[in-house]
């Protein structure tokens, strides 16, 4: 991948609302070069979606997010891909990652309440063939996501006193 495409990706990752003229100015290239680079990145499925990072704690909508550690038995010939595909097709599932370590998959699930997430785990996820065990961790508070800090930090303005 050429350097221009990498720089475009970095700038769009920081802020996907940046326009072609803004990107061209920041990169000191023509708008046509930026348009071509973005089009190629989209065609190659390097850029698959433009999204917004939302601090849901500031929105009056109840939402529960869980990270579920899943141990599975890989399928002969397809490894972890077949079971990962079955899991990521559920609408409650927001992300699925193949992991190294004590478990195989990390599944991010979103629901309206604890009961909805628990129902997903017990009625849909755990009964799947090849799922050996699950461990559910509920997210209580997000401090930072995708490089964005959610907390309004208050600097300590007290005078430093030393002995």
UniProtKB/TrEMBL annotation:
InterPro entries (UniProt xref): AsnC-type_HTH_dom, Dimeric_a/b-barrel, HTH-Siroheme_Decarb, Tscrpt_reg_AsnC-like, Tscrpt_reg_AsnC/Lrp_C, WH-like_DNA-bd_sf, WH_DNA-bd_sf
Q: Which domain of life is it from?
A: Bacteria
Query: What Pfam families does the record tag this protein with?
Result: AsnC_trans_reg (PF01037), HTH_24 (PF13412)
- Identify the residues that the record assigns to the HTH asnC-type domain, covering every copy: 1-81
Keywords from the UniProt entry = DNA-binding, Transcription, Transcription regulation
- Keyword Isomerase listed? The answer is no
Q: Where are the transmembrane segments?
A: none
Extract the PANTHER family matched here.
HTH-TYPE TRANSCRIPTIONAL REGULATOR PTR2, TRANSCRIPTIONAL REGULATOR, ASNC FAMILY
Q: What is this protein called in UniProt? A: Lrp/AsnC family transcriptional regulator
Species this protein is from: Paenibacillus thermoaerophilus
């Amino acid at each position: 991948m050429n350097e221009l495409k990498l720089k475009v990706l970095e700038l769009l990752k920081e802020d996907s609302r940046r326009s072609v003229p803004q990107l061209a100015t920041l990169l000191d290239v023509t708008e046509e070069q930026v348009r071509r680079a973005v089009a190629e990145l989209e065609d190659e499925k390097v850029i698959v979606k433009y999204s917004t990072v939302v601090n849901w704690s500031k929105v009056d909508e109840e939402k529960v997010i869980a990270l579920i550690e899943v141990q599975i038995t890989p399928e002969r010939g397809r490894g972890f891909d077949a079971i990962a595909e079955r899991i990521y097709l559920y609408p409650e599932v927001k992300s699925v990652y193949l992991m190294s370590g004590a478990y195989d998959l990390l599944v991010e699930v979103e629901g309206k309440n604890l009961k909805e997430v628990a129902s997903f785990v017990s009625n849909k996820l755990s009964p799947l063939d090849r799922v050996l065990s699950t461990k559910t961790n509920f997210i209580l508070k997000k401090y930072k996501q995708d490089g964005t800090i959610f907390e309004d930090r208050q600097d300590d303005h007290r005078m430093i006193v030393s002995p």
